[in-house]
Amino acid sequence: MKKLFAILLVALLALSSAALADTIKIGVPNDTTNEARALQLLADNGIIELAEGAGETATKADVLTEGIEIVESQAEYLVNQLPDLDYAVINSNFVLDALDAGIEIDKALLVEVEEVYLPRANVIAVKSENAEAPLTKALIAAACSQQVKEYIDATYAGAVISVVDEPTDGYDPDVDYAALAGQTITIAATPAPHAQILEIVKGILAEKDITLEIVVYTGYTEENPAVDAGDLYANYFQHQPYLDEYVAETGGDVVSVAIVHTEPMGLYGGRQADLSALGK
Questions:
Q1: Tens digit of pLDDT for each residue in 174-221?
Q2: In sequence order, what are the residues at sequence separation of 6 or more whose Cβ sits closer than 8 angstroms to the Cβ of residue 184?
């Protein structure tokens, strides 16, 4: 009897190990807007099925597909976690950060469609009291310029896409630039692509003797409070739904004043080099 029990136990352990081995681990960002977005990318490509009604607030609890484990993580950590995951859905700015740091990462296996990533374009935000200020208008004109659009198109090969339909020459004809000469705009940004893009903006403003001081943050929680408190004039790091969520949760007084670019989310391979493990 003991021998039979031992055989059954070994068999059960083997089955359990096989089941674990067959489970596909997919990492997704753990913040509300990006997790829902990541899960929708997977659902749109037939990788998972989501519960009926799961939308902008979808989480791993809404995933109905067996054999796939959704691993929630802070968005900025997913690149480093790829070796322990089969796949991960990652915002392209973190992929750019990884490439800049010399981390090898393959091209996305799947990318969001335009209807999904366009509404999540990245914005420049200021306190509402500064929304119509001449300094803000000067910043907007420089950020929405042909120079910036051309830089984005030439630099990021589709990982970052300009959404400016009518780019300026860098300047607003209604702004009295002479009156702004000698002033400084402090702006928070994450490293890539935001701070990189702002270097182009900095050069445009410098032509009018306006200094753009770029304050680089590596996280995503301090930029809005810094603008809210008046410690910084503006920030450029987030898409509109993220800003909307911040305002709803905190009652913050931060508003978007310009839409500059968008970053399609992609599914990247970790332990898997292609989609064959998903039957694709």
A1: 999 999 999 999 999 998 899 999 999 999 999 999 999 999 998 899
A2: 210, 211, 212, 213
By 3-state DSSP, what share of the chain in percent is helix, strand and coil, each rounded to 5? 45, 20, 35
3-class state of residue 44 by DSSP: helix
Token pair listed for 87: 């796949």
**Do the Cβ atoms of 189 and 217 come closer than 8 Å?**
yes
Residue 89, H or E segment: strand 87-90
pTM higher than 0.85 for the full model?
Answer: no
Q: Is the pLDDT of residue 124 over 80?
A: yes
Domains contained in the chain, CATH given:
2-112+266-278 (3.40.190.10), 119-262 (3.40.190.10)
**Run of H or E residues at 161:** strand 161-162
Tens digits of residue pLDDT in 45-61: 999 999 999 988 899 99
Winning range, highest mean pLDDT, from 7-11, 18-22, 65-69: 65-69
Cis peptide before 29 (omega within 30 of 0): no
Instruction: Report residue 145 as tokens.
Output: 């310029």
- DSSP string covering 177-240: HHHHTT-EEEEEE-IIIIIHHHHHHHHHHHTTT-EEEEEE-SSSSSHHHHHHTTSSSEEEEEEH
CA atoms within 13 A on the CB side of 227: 32
Euclidean distance between CA atoms 223 and 103, whole angstroms: 26
